[in-house]
Design goal:
mainly alpha; disordered C terminus
Length: about 260
């Protein structure tokens, strides 16, 4: 029996180590300290929301913690459809405006609080440079966007012209691309912030070429401005003319938002 004791003791030690190892590998709840709000926002929220750069698929979240109380936000983030089904007026109005179903999220209260604090602090870091809305474009910038879109002007990093796969507005012709969707109304779908991200991040399968040959910030803005005009032709023409006239007379840029529509 004595000769078996060391073996039994060693076997017991091995079994204890293996048992502890398996316990360590069991799934545990995500603790608040391990919750990276920035990473979670980028992975699970940024596809539909921005913070401070305009609506994307869903609303811009800047100031949301001031507009809604914490209890409402917790309930809506966990299950927006449940809040809608209960007849909450704000939730119903948001759904009617954006016509998109927000997925449910199984976050804890602490995780939602961290996510809301991240949003309240300004959300994701923006690229260097001032963000510009498409409505601030001049006629010259829109014209340049059209040239870049059609290939009349070359992209700085050698990417293909948008018209190889798309048409937009009055760019349609026998040589225009039909491989991908018509972009005439794409601005209305993605809005300013969402379209900026789509052009910058090149997430769509047919845009993979631009990951190695990205658009410059000036090209992104010009193409976005052209697509803004394509989606709103009646009202943008007079705005652009006023903006160009104001810039010519003063030598300074005047945002279109400060100009009145032509009567």
């Amino acid at each position: 029996m004595k000769s078996d004791s060391p073996r039994s003791s060693a076997l017991f030690s091995i079994l204890r180590i293996l048992t502890c190892g398996w316990i360590a590998l069991l799934p545990l709840p995500l603790c608040a300290a391990a919750f990276d709000a920035a990473m979670v926002f980028n992975a699970r929220c940024s596809g539909c929301h921005a913070v401070g750069t305009g609506d994307v698929v869903g609303p811009d979240l800047r100031g949301v913690t001031a507009r809604r109380d914490a209890r409402w936000l917790h309930a809506f983030i966990r299950s927006s459809q449940s809040v809608i089904r209960h007849g909450d007026r704000t939730a119903v109005a948001l759904f009617q405006k954006y016509q998109k179903r927000m997925p449910d999220h199984d976050f804890t209260d602490q995780e939602i609080d961290r996510l809301l604090a991240f949003i309240a602090a300004g959300g994701p870091q923006r690229p260097a440079g001032e963000y510009r809305h498409a409505r601030t474009a001049t006629g010259a910038e829109v014209a340049q966007g059209r040239r870049l879109f059609t290939g009349a002007a070359s992209l700085a990093h050698g990417g293909a012209a948008c018209s190889r796969c798309h048409v937009a507005g009055n760019t349609a012709s026998w040589w225009g691309g039909t491989l991908a969707s018509d972009l005439t109304h794409v601005y209305l779908k993605y809005r300013d912030g969402g379209l900026t991200r789509a052009l910058t991040e090149s997430r769509f399968p047919l845009m993979t070429e631009y990951r190695d040959r990205p658009l410059t910030s000036e090209e992104t803005f010009a193409i976005k401005a052209f697509l803004y005009q394509a989606a709103n032709p009646p009202r943008t023409a007079s705005r652009l003319a006023q903006n160009d006239a104001a810039r010519s007379s003063t030598g300074r840029f005047t945002p279109l938002a400060q100009l009145t529509l032509g009567q």
